[in-house]
Amino acid sequence: MARTALLAMDLQLHHLARLPADYLPHAVHALGTARAAGVPVIHVALRLRPGHLDVHPRNKIFGSLPSHLYTADDPGTAIHPDVAPAEGETVVYKNRVSAFAGNNLQQLLAVQDIDHLVLAGVSTAGIVLSTALQAADLDYQVTVLSDACADPNPALHHTLVTDVLPRRGGVATVEQWAHILNATL
């Protein structure tokens, strides 16, 4: 049986401000489901170096950001309090789109013998897509929680969770995932 972890990705104040208010309860539900089932939760957040020394100006996503955003001193970089890490949960900081970029996430997963990643976060076209593709290439089993992911472009979110991401792994709602977890307990 696969050892599973939930990656709660980019659930930061800046990111969530661009989404409808009805998204956050789905992310809260995903974390509650994982915690109740004893599934490890790993929080992944974007954090850049002061002055963005780790961002190349050619980088289309990060190169034009004002240099004070997404640094340790930026209050908008905080993980939303409703989905904040519980005691003992790991927080990993990344410096690009994928959850694996610029950190030791893969090592942390290997140490825990995790081979199934369940993805929740924002945005679907950003960290969710990049992480799902990289995780599949790294031979992880991947499940995307369609209602615990969101994108500022709802049509793009729909296309990704119905047409693109199922080619690399599973897609389920939080309720469907909860049912699967309860069936295996």
Short description:
By secondary structure, the protein is α/β, with parallel strands linked by helices. Helices cover 33% and strands 20% of the residues. It has one domain: Isochorismatase-like (Rossmann fold, 3-Layer(aba) Sandwich), CATH 3.40.50.850.
Q: Explain this structure to me?
A:
The protein has about 180 residues and is of the alpha/beta class. The chain has a single domain (about 5-185), classed as Isochorismatase-like (Rossmann fold, 3-Layer(aba) Sandwich). The protein is built from 6 helices and 6 strands. It has helices at about 15, 25-35, 105-110, 125-135, 155-165, 175-185, and strands spanning about 5-10, 40-45, 90-95, 115-120, 140-150, 170. Strands 3-2-1-4-5-6 form a 6-stranded parallel sheet, with helices on both faces. Helix 5 links the parallel strand 5 (about 140-150) and strand 6. Helix 2 (about 25-35) packs parallel to helix 6. The longest helix is centred in the first third of the chain and has 14 residues, at about 25-35. It is globular, with a radius of gyration of 16 Å.
